[in-house]
User: What shape does this take?
Amino acid sequence: MGLVESGKTPKSLQTLLNMSRKYSLWVYQWGLACCALEMGAAFASPRYDVMRLGVIPLPASPRQADMVVVSGTVTDKMAPAIRRLYEQMPDPKYVISMGSCANCGGPYWDSYSVTKGVDQIIPVDVYVPGCPPRPEALLEGIVMLQERIQNEDMQERWVGEPIVVGS
Amino acid sequence: MSDETAVDTVDEADVVAETDEVREATLASLTDEVGDGIVESHIRPNDDIWVRVSRDAWVDTGMALKSMGFGYFSFLSAIDWMPSPFGRDMDSQVDLTLNPPEDEDDDVVMETGVAGGDTRFQVFARVNDIVNNRAITLKADLPDDDLSIATWIPVYSGANWHEREAAEMFGIDFVGHPNLRNLYLPGAFEGNPMRKDFALLSRRIKPWPGIVDVEPMPGEDEEGEDA
Amino acid sequence: MTTQIPDLSEQEQLRYISQQAADARVNVEIETEGMTLNLGPQHPATHGTLRIIAKLDGEQVVAAEPVMGYMHRGYEKLAEVRTYPQVTTLVNRIDWVGSFANETPFILAAEKLMEVEAPPRAQYIRTILHEMSRIANVILGIGDMGVQVGAVTPIFFAFRDREYVLNQIEAVTGGRFHPNFDRIGGLKDDLPAGWIQNTKNAMEKVRDFCDQIEELMYGNEIFQARTRGIGIIPKDVGLAYGLSGVNIRGSGVDWDVRRDNMSPGLVYDQVDWKVWTHPDGDSYSRMWVRLQEVREGTKIVDQLLDQIPSGPIMAKVPRIIKVPAGEAYVETENPLGVMGYYVVSKGDLNPYRVKIRSASFNNVSITPWLLKGVYVPDIITILGSLYFILGDIDR
Assistant: This one.
């Protein structure tokens, strides 16, 4: 796909590519703390059922994932591992930061061992606030990310502010 | 062990009229076993019992308690009785870094808790007797110049991780512990976080909104801001 | 890597290893070179971020060393710099699957120091919510155990039926996960209208889940083969390591803080229920006791709902809470085991020191001993049957 890399894809082809990308998001679940359960409820429970959105929640490894949901408290001890797995993911890749802890440290803003936000180590595309956010909030974040992917220009992929759900 | 043991005099000025035969008897039989090792004790009737032992008697007391039926290990930890020098953004009332004491020799007054204490650091542990539903809290003072105490692993195997935790959080050395590495913190972490003089840097930079309201409520005027 | 086995348990350990070795004579004869297997910190079988470094000889674990701290958030330090009502917000997140149960012992300890007692209605609602958080927690543990042995259906069932309980908790507290509902001297709010009947319906659903899962999972041949006789914890070893809750009752120790050492402020003595134990001490017995606990929990909730008295839900406490100087330790039987708070107060707005005795920390501290000599796939089932929450270990 030299065409894609050079950024000269025709508009129609780009729309098609974007649509197929947005409906086949393989999500690597980085469940860390409380939010992991709400993520689990969104991904594994029949009530919220994320697969209807074209999101596939169980890739075998980060190397096959398009998106990672960092849900929960990132500690200083964990941070290198997160960075490492993020780097293992192939481009294009998206990061959803779920919950107050991953966004900014949350209730542990003054702790000696907590990283104050996962955006200090990896770039974040969607912030889902809440402690923990309801599964619906995560789903909304995914839907908003899908909208962005649909309108994405291959060349200008890294331009733009991150999405904040509910703002 | 509950047969008529001589009612031991409780050192603490315990003027409560209630008596607690079970705990008194426990204390009495522990005194028989450990003897001079017991420095001080306190009984809150029908609730709890605290015994402070000397550092040298720490392991012996554990052995004695285990033989008395206290076979269940609940927890082991430590406490720092020196109030924090960082004032209200930590938990003490006076910020010694901003208002240093005029007289350098003027030590901060340490108030120690139940069953007393003489030194800054104290190790405490709790063991249960799950058959008779008794529990006892043990304490031991650590001298300021030698923060070490013998390990409890030979007595209660569960003390292993608890001692590792206390070691990294307070900087206490557990003599005889086979593997006193950091349990929680990354290896490069400096300091002992649970010591009272360990400052939480975020709090030093930003005042804690929970103690003083720094922001007006929505809809209010800006007046209350410097409250 | 140095791993240590306590002296007292050496014999059982050796006996167990030799039994296992007899099964796998091949390993012994070939003398394969050892390898080190790293599980985690991000691994589906570790309920979060536990990392286990296992030294293997063939398929057998020679030494296993858990590495923790990936979820260490410094609760004990943070509790020292927060006021008493703020601490409940914090401790909610220790065992994040059964959050309300985390608040209970702390509030009870503060009440003990302040010498206030919640009104009876508040005590009942507290006990109900405590049990409901147990149900919400343990259901998930059971479902998760299914995943550990290779069955995915139970976790779907668990998430489905857990929602009914969470809905009820949300209806009364406003939070699915972190209610922050307990107050010193009572509760934040009263029950909403129609809650009692809805909760009874939810409990009915939970009992259905228990019946379903018992046939689906516990009766399954594979499940039994993977759990029976695996991961045996003898009684005295469990006690010396301070195991609690289901993990020790699964070893035949008949000890339940709810019954034996109920702290004032809860009303377990008002209901008719049973403490289940299982003599075997293996993975299966732990999971079996867990299932019975859920059933007992629904019974307790049903009975309490019937007897709930009317009256105020808040005792008279000052608006700004200053807890008198003193020390108190209160423990309750939480979903994962015995959880206690040792609160040292100096009469300030903040606690001077809070030692959090969390259940999983003690429960998991047995793993270096327990995993010695087992096969690699059994690591997963043993960890699953111990059922811990990382927040409860690392705090």
Q: What stands out?
A: The CA atoms of residues 121 and 142 of chain B lie 6 Å apart.
